[in-house]
Amino acid sequence: MSKQRAKLVIGNWKMHGRLAENAALLQAVAQGAAGLPAEVGVGVCVPSPYLAQTQSLLEGGRVLWGVQDVSAFTHGAYTGEVAAPMVVDFGASLSIVGHSERRAYHRESAELVAVKTQRALEAGLTPVVCVGETLEEREAGSTEQVVGDQLDAVLVKLSEAEAARIVVAYEPVWAIGTGQSATSDQAQAVHAFLRSRLTAKGAAVADVPLLYGGSVKPDNAEELFRQPDIDGGLIGGASLKAQDFLAICKAAAATSVVS
Ligand code: PEP
């Protein structure tokens, strides 16, 4: 008998998009996603100014939406910040936190990422917590140390019930936007390690979705998603092209049934 495995594919648009091209992309994604099996969850994380547009085009459909970061504060004199409850006002249900670009370019510490995760959870968002090592760290043999520390910094601040509501994305920094994805074996090995860390937090946390991100494309998605601890993908560049993003969602569908 075949077994169903839930999969999740989330697009990270980064700082891309304008009103006209967003409309075409969102409509195409909504239309394409409508035909996917129920086991496949689909979401897009858009730049905050386009939340209202995204809500108006996706509401009532099956594609979730959200943002790429939230403030560590709920409100106040924090110029330029966007608070999690503001995002929820626009029907959003997702927020990426701790993306490597924020850790690197905005000097976000593991502790700050943990606080942002808490703020997202309090507001009712699903935080997509990103972890990943640089090439130097991988070559030094410290991948598990790095991603373990990044994940633990978040888990230590959460109850078991809260931790069960997060999504974790393993995104090796050297694979992001480079066209050089981790191999399915490399990704699976890190996912298995992260799974053991999640399981150690409590039985309810063991099944938290573990996404792989880093140069996922239509031609490598299926092989990656077939791995036992890879529950889907966080997709950067390929999420900006409806055809590619939907092809990746179809790869998730193909791997959501295990015979
Ligand atoms: C990302 O930045 O989250 C990402 C996975 O990017 P890309 O797919 O372009 O490597």
| Outline type | globular
Number of helices, where a helix is a run of at least 4 consecutive DSSP H or I residues: 11
Strand fraction band? Answer: 15-25%
The level-1 CATH class: Alpha Beta
What is the average per-residue confidence, as pLDDT, rounded to a whole number? 97
Specify the oligomeric state: single chain
Annotation, overall tally of beta strands? 10
Overall structural class, as computed from helix and strand content, comes to alpha/beta
Give structural notes:
The chain is 42% helix and 17% strand. It is of the alpha/beta class. It has one domain (3-258): Aldolase class I (TIM Barrel, Alpha-Beta Barrel), CATH 3.20.20. The strands form two sheets. It has an eight-stranded parallel barrel with strand order 2-3-4-5-6-7-8-9, surrounded by seven helices. It has a two-stranded antiparallel ribbon with strand order 1-10. Strand 7 (167-170), helix 9 and strand 8 (210-213) form a beta-alpha-beta unit. Residues 12, 171, 176-177, 213-216, 234-238 line the site of phosphoenolpyruvate.
Quick overview:
This protein is of the alpha/beta class. The protein has helices spanning 19-33, 51-58, 84-88, 100-105, 110-123, 135-139, 143-155, 160-163, 184-201, 218-225, 242-254; strands spanning 3-4, 7-12, 40-45, 63-67, 94-97, 126-131, 167-170, 210-213, 232-235, 257-258. It has a single domain, classed as TIM Barrel.
